[in-house]
Amino acid sequence: MSAFLPSPDYSEEERRLIVDYIAQLTKPTLARFMREHQLSGRAGTKENMRERIEEALAQHAVSFTDLVGLLDEVEPWGKQHVYFLRGPEGLDLGAWLAKTELQSYLTEKRVGKYLDRKLPLILPEKLSLSSIEHSSNRLRVTAIERRDGWERDETNDRSEQAGDERIQYRAYVKRVSRGLIAFEWDLIQNVATVQISQLPSGFRYEQALGRFNTLVKRWLPMDTFTSLGLARAIQRFHEWEAEGLAITRSHSIGYRTPGNRELVGKTLDPQGVFLGQEDIVDDAMNNAKTHGSVGSSGNFYFLPSSDAHNPLSLEVHAILWAGDLQRVNFPTSNVESEVRYVLRRIREASR
C-alpha cells in the first residue's frame, strides 16, 4: 500500500462526512478495518461499529487519514462507470515502465511527490490528484473531487389542495458525495480504463472524463488514447449464451440496425433469463445479429463458475453501452477481484 503524504487539515464538515461515508461500508469491510487496528466491537451492529470507530478517533487510536485510506481502498470498486481505451500507437513505453525514468519525468512535471504515495483527500473543491501508483506492468492515477447533487426522497413528498387544484410537491435532498476518477494503464498490453464513481443525478460522465483529462494533460498523454468500442462484446456475449457457452445471463440485449433503428429485447422478470425461452424472441435477436446490425446495449449478469480464474461467488451486474456512450456501468458495489474479472472478460470479448 502506498505511503501517505502529509495529511490535509480536514474541516468539521469533512470530518463528519468521513464518518458518514465509512458507516455506509459493509459490515465485513468495517470488521476487517477494526481488526487491523485492534478495535473491539467487531461483532456488533453497524451502528455499534460506527460508535466504536468514533470512540477510537477521540482516543487517537485511529486517525481520519486511516479512514480516508479505507475509502480509497474500497471506493474504486463500488458503483461506477468505466471507459475502455486503447493505448497510443508508436509510444515508447520503456520510459513509463522504468521507475527511475518515470520519477525524473514526473518530478520535472511537478507531480513527482505523488509517485507511490497518497494524498488523503476527502472533499476537495475541484478535482485534485490523489496518487500515482506504479508497478512493473501498470500505472494507476487517482483523482478525488467534491460532488454536490440532489437526490429524490419520495418519503417526504406531499400534496395539498389549493382551491380547485391539487398541488403535488416532490422532495429532493442535497447530498455531498466523494467522487473518484481512476485511470489505469496496462503498460504491457498498452490498454487502459478510466473508472468514474457513480455521479449524482444530472451530472454527465463525459464531463467528468473531460475534467480528468484537463487535470493530467501536462504529463499524461490522454489525447493519444482512443476509445475501445463495446458493440463486439455485446454481440459475443449474446452468441456465447445462445450456444450454451455463457459467461453471462442476459437481462436485455439491444442492436442498432443498418437503417439506424434500435431493436431491444428484454425479460420482464428481474431474475429471469432473456434468451432460450421463446423462439420468436430468439429468432428476432439472431436476425438482427446476422443481418448487419451491431450491438448497442447489453444488460448482463456475469456468472460464477468452477473456473479457477473466475473469482465470482455470486452474479455481478454490468450494463454495456455502445454507440455514442461506449462505457460500462456497474450499478452495484463489488470488490476489486470481481470488477477486474468482469473488465477482463469484456475486453477479451471486444477483440
Description:
The chain has helices at residues 12-23, 27-36, 46-58, 64-74, 94-97, 99-108, 205-216, 231-242, 279-290, 336-349; strands at residues 3-4, 80-86, 117-118, 128-134, 138-152, 158-162, 165-169, 172-186, 191-197, 226-227, 248-256, 262-266, 294-302, 316-321, 327-330. It has 351 residues and is α+β, with helices and mostly antiparallel strands. It folds into three domains: 3-77; 80-227, no CATH class; 231-349, no CATH class. Strands 2, 4, 5, 8, 9, 10, 11, 12, 13, 14 and 15 form an eleven-stranded antiparallel sheet that branches. A two-stranded parallel ribbon has the order 1-3. Helix 8 (231-242) packs across helix 10. The longest helix has 14 residues, at 336-349. The protein is globular. The model has no long low-confidence stretch (mean pLDDT 94).
Task: Describe the structure in brief.
With 351 residues, this protein is α+β, with helices and mostly antiparallel strands. It is built from 10 helices and 15 strands. It folds into 3 domains: 3-77; 80-227, no CATH class; 231-349, no CATH class.
End-to-end Cα distance, whole Å, is: 33 Å
Proportion of strand residues: 25-35%
Rg for CA atoms = 23 Å
What percent of the residues sit in helical stretches (DSSP H or I)? 25-40%
| Helix segment tally | 10
Structural class: alpha+beta
Major sheet size, sense and barrel closure: 11 strands, antiparallel
Domains, number: 3
Tell me, what's the shape?
globular
On the 0 to 100 scale, the average pLDDT is 94
Low-confidence runs (pLDDT<50, min 5 residues)? none
How many strand units?
Answer: 15
Query: Secondary-structure element sequence?
Result: EHHHHEHHEEEEEEEHEHEEHEEEH
